Amino acid sequence: MQEPEASEPEATRRDADVTESSRANRGWWDRNADEYQTEHGTFLGDDRFVWGPEGLDEVEAELLGPPEELKGKDVLEIGAGAAQCSRWLAGQGARPVALDISHRQLQHALRIGGPFPLVCADAGALPFADGSFDLACSAYGALPFVADPRLVLREVRRVLRPGGRLVFSVTHPIRWAFPDEPGPEGLSVSGSYFDRTPYVEQDDEGRAVYVEHHRTIGDRVRDVVASGFRLVDLVEPEWPAWNTSEWGGWSPLRGNLIPGTAIFVCVRD
């Protein structure tokens, strides 16, 4: 007898706490890592450091500092996926550690290879001693998916040395007011920018299988400062002419009109 097909998750807006969000997103990334790497692996490359769907490359942006100054630096990549960014960092002579909550994502990192450790752990409970790293980075990793971003930021501050830098990118908060569509339908406001209710996909029994959390720009700034960092830059990449790709709700059409990514450059004093 044929097994019944699993029903599609229901998309809704509701509260989801730290534990539910972590469990849901670990499972989602484990289940979807193969498809994600197949779909986006060419754009990401094996050893590029791309900050978001716009294609802003660390080679040009130098948000972690000049490439020649990365040599010998201990760097933690949070939400590393297949560790493309860590592989680029290793190529500059840095000593990266690639961390992700998803075991399957890290299996893709292992498949591609690289001379650096892979660590499967939650960003809210980093398994490292105080002052272990000079730099930390996260390209769309962890922070869009956690219920308490300050928990993660304080953990990152703890493992950074004084003067250390954290740079992280997230979906630009303004995008939460628009439908997540790459075409013209994604250009009309459909909800309140100030509604912080998480986006949740849940199964038939109401269990979350994917969670994403919204913070306004002001919320993100307050999170950074309250966690002991100094915000030194906020980068909103413009959509470049060369990039004709669509990635979910990111597209040349929308990217030329509204920002899609926000990158926060922070220093631990």
UniProtKB/TrEMBL annotation:
Top class in the EC scheme: transferase
Keywords for the protein's UniProt record, in alphabetical order: Methyltransferase, Transferase
InterPro entries xrefs: Methyltransf_11 (IPR013216), Methyltransf_Superfamily (IPR050508), SAM-dependent_MTases_sf (IPR029063)
Coiled-coil residue spans: none
UniProt GO BP: methylation
Region (Disordered): 1-32
Gene Ontology molecular functions: methyltransferase activity
Domain Methyltransferase type as annotated: residue spans: 76-168
Residues that span the membrane, as ranges: none
Gene3D superfamilies in alphabetical order: Vaccinia Virus protein VP39
EC number: 2.1.1.-
Superkingdom field: Bacteria
Protein known as: Class I SAM-dependent methyltransferase
